[in-house]
Amino acid sequence: MRIDINCDLGEGSDLKSCIRDTQIMPFISRCNIACGAHAGNRDIMRLSIFNAQKHHLKIGAHPGYPDRENFGRKSVKLPINLLLDSLFQQIEQLQSLTTEAGVLLDHVKLHGALYNDAEADRLLSKEIISLFAKEYPSLKIIGLANGAMESVAIEKQCTFYREGFIDRHYLNKEKLAPRNLPGSVLNNIENCLERAIALAKGTDFTSYYGTPLKFSVDTICLHGDNPAALKIAKALVKHLQHHGLNIQS
């Protein structure tokens, strides 16, 4: 059995931050590189691509709201044409650098508040998926398992990877618990590891409310900005292997 592990990277403020990202890369199979709007810049993107190539990772775009002050984690009220233009420019910038490096851009995954807003607003999902389908038909789309983006992507016949989170509680099988809910972020590594197994194998785990949930995913997210990300990544590889799972894109 195998499972894909993706990680949001290139979100640091300087090139030194790429060193920490590089330490995580041996333990994942796919990276989502910030495109300069919520975090990152052209130099960080270029170095992140170079490092990802060395570790044979699939490389994807990680666009978000153009709001560096809040790290893209607050909703921004933008006219839809301006939002779509921002997403296009972000992906274009990263794609120009992957082309420069001689590697194909593989996928796209929304960041932060935009990820959540697209799940909460089906019309927004349709606008964003339509942009991806028109401008980047070869890119896979990563999004929340069982959510609005998945449903719209299926309608548009786009390749969609169902994503699960090992460090976040779920309200139900379609919704993550908001970060402002006490205890919504899982900090205990053992709990994160058990969640990873449940998502990879499609076995039971517990919702935020204590009710049982059960569904499987195509890819599991490890948040690169988590202070314990490297420690979790190392433990995750060993734990998955112990349960007969290999990390592979």
From TrEMBL:
Keyword Hydrolase: yes
E.C. number(s) listed in UniProt: 3.5.2.9
InterPro entries the record matches: Glyco_hydro/deAcase_b/a-brl (IPR011330), LamB/YcsF/PxpA-like (IPR005501)
Pfam families according to UniProt: LamB_YcsF (PF03746)
Keyword annotations: Hydrolase
GO function terms (MF aspect): 5-oxoprolinase (ATP-hydrolyzing) activity
Gene3D superfamilies per UniProt: Glycoside hydrolase/deacetylase
Protein name: 5-oxoprolinase subunit PxpA
Protein source organism: Microbulbifer variabilis
Gene that encodes the chain: pxpA
